[in-house]
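tool_call: predict_structure(chain=1)
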Amino acid sequence: MLFLCLSDIHGHAEALSAVLATAERRAYARVIVAGDICFPGPEPLRTWRRLSQMNAVCVQGVGDRALSMVDATTLHPRDEFERARLRRLLEVREELGDALLRRIAKLPQIARQTLEGGRQLLVVHGSPVDPLEPMTHDMDETTLSELLGQDPADLVVCGGSHVPFDRIVPRRVGTPGVPPATRVINLGSVGEAPCGDEPPFAHATFVESTEDGIEVEQFVVPLGRAA
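tool_result:
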């Protein structure tokens, strides 16, 4: 089965459309989204509707949790950036409406799927130990292993850091139900990829599971204008 795996769209519907148009070159079976779907980008409702139309498998990210569950009256912004962020939070809530916010609040923090050969795929925004704490490209194997905890997944796809990577992480030998190694794939970001002085772009990943194993293709989609 071929999955198109995305993360950190952040309400950038144009960037999502560009990724989906590029991904049409392959006949993927399902879209997986590792959180941070709608906030704070310019088109949260369009983003949500597009993913819903495709029956995408989505988990909850940090932004999704804040958008749907944080009491804005308890927040006290300290500077103009935080005040602007709070204003945008309220605007996105208004655009999505109560019914969709309830659906976002109920998104799971972790999703699992059994792959060919009995392998286990786990989808999480951050890490199995803490779905809100990202696994990043600069972490060593020991730290990544600790964030995997005792989760039995053979393959973990995640987001949160906006920087993609593909690592094989050795696990604690002899722990019942835990594989000797887990492949961790950070999906980067569709809507807020760190670009510096480069033209804007989006990250995406194909994950193909067969009886023989797992193939991963991480790719970049140039964006014609800022997403």
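agent: The beta strands are 2-6, 30-33, 57-58, 110-114, 120-124, 155-158, 165-170, 181-186, 201-210, 213-222. Proceeding to next step.
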